[in-house]
Amino acid sequence: MKDSSKLLEELNARSREVFRRVVESYLETGDPVGSRTLTRTMSEKVSAATVRNVMQDLEFLGLLDSPHVSAGRIPTQTGLRMFVDGLLEVADLQNDDRQKLDETLGSNSGDVNSMLDRIGSALSGVTRGASLVLAPKTEAPIKHIEFVSLAHDRALVVLVYADGHVENRIFSPPPGITPSAMREAANFLNAIIEGRTLSEVNTVMRAEIESRRREIDKLAHDLVESGLAVWDGQGETNERLIVRGRSHLLSGEEEESGLDRIKTLFDDLERKRDIAEFLELTEEGEGVRIFIGSENKLFSLSGSSLVVSPYMNADRKIIGAVGVIGPTRLNYGRIVPIVDYTAQLVGRLISDRTQR
């Protein structure tokens, strides 16, 4: 199959117009488009037979498909990709949409996750799709750490950050851990972690353990190792995926197969191991990206599209992402500026909070 941009270049003006009108009609209605319908909208006067021949050629190229023998055509995944890359006209952000997103700032209180939760709900409401927001990991430098024994199989780790933020996380310590081993492990960590972020601690700590292994006993060593697994993403982490607006995806999906697709989609979303991949989708460049059907490696099913954009902190580092998911016939021209504006909004809010 040829690259979509090369296919577009090879189409003559009539074929390009037929293709564009089929896609635009499909995105608006979700219905197959017939040749007689197109003859009423073409810029030049042509017969239905001529349009039908053009549509057959476009089907041969893999850009259109016939869902039923006697029905009209709909765009294929390749066709949608070509339309998005070469023919999509992105609209300006509507004032009503901007206002609804900006209203989330009116209650700009609470922690970052609460703020992102409100923005996710607003994004879902504006787009009438399911919104996805990847909350950032805490990257503030650590000031102090403590381990607290809760039971023989449960312990609490308390992380105090330089910005005053405190996190308490429960995990399962190695069997046989003692209060003295917990103190020893905390002393060991506090000697090396101050001023470093969690991501920096990982590398430093493992090097320190190798060089100072004899200074900490086996239980303290295991506690440090298991504690790090909790803090740095192999267990519970501060990185989470916020999903809002599932009902929007379910409406209009009355067929049983449609409901099964939606269920599979959210099963995929709720697997914590997939969250990091969501951010990886955005890291190849700034701006909004569109994934159509099976192009989207986060989901195991085709038939859904994701419009996603990263957001950045004050240092222009990508720390999270926001997006909208829906059927492949999303109104891309309207959704793209909304996602772009939301990502910029989240980035500004997080930067403002970290600079206070």
UniProtKB/TrEMBL annotation:
<dbReference type="Pfam" id="PF03444">
    <property type="entry name" value="WHD_HrcA"/>
</dbReference>
<dbReference type="GO" id="GO:0045892">
    <property type="term" value="P:negative regulation of DNA-templated transcription"/>
</dbReference>
<dbReference type="Pfam" id="PF01628">
    <property type="entry name" value="HrcA"/>
</dbReference>
<protein>
    <recommendedName>
        <fullName>Heat-inducible transcription repressor HrcA</fullName>
    </recommendedName>
</protein>
<dbReference type="InterPro" id="IPR005104">
    <property type="entry name" value="WHTH_HrcA_DNA-bd"/>
</dbReference>
<dbReference type="InterPro" id="IPR023120">
    <property type="entry name" value="WHTH_transcript_rep_HrcA_IDD"/>
</dbReference>
<feature type="domain" description="Heat-inducible transcription repressor HrcA C-terminal">
    <location>
        <begin position="114"/>
        <end position="336"/>
    </location>
</feature>
<dbReference type="InterPro" id="IPR036388">
    <property type="entry name" value="WH-like_DNA-bd_sf"/>
</dbReference>
<comment type="function">
    <text>Negative regulator of class I heat shock genes (grpE-dnaK-dnaJ and groELS operons). Prevents heat-shock induction of these operons.</text>
</comment>
<feature type="domain" description="Winged helix-turn-helix transcription repressor HrcA DNA-binding">
    <location>
        <begin position="11"/>
        <end position="78"/>
    </location>
</feature>
<keyword id="KW-0804">Transcription</keyword>
<dbReference type="InterPro" id="IPR002571">
    <property type="entry name" value="HrcA"/>
</dbReference>
<dbReference type="InterPro" id="IPR036390">
    <property type="entry name" value="WH_DNA-bd_sf"/>
</dbReference>
<keyword id="KW-0346">Stress response</keyword>
<dbReference type="InterPro" id="IPR021153">
    <property type="entry name" value="HrcA_C"/>
</dbReference>
<keyword id="KW-0805">Transcription regulation</keyword>
<keyword id="KW-0678">Repressor</keyword>
<comment type="similarity">
    <text>Belongs to the HrcA family.</text>
</comment>
<dbReference type="GO" id="GO:0003677">
    <property type="term" value="F:DNA binding"/>
</dbReference>
<dbReference type="InterPro" id="IPR029016">
    <property type="entry name" value="GAF-like_dom_sf"/>
</dbReference>
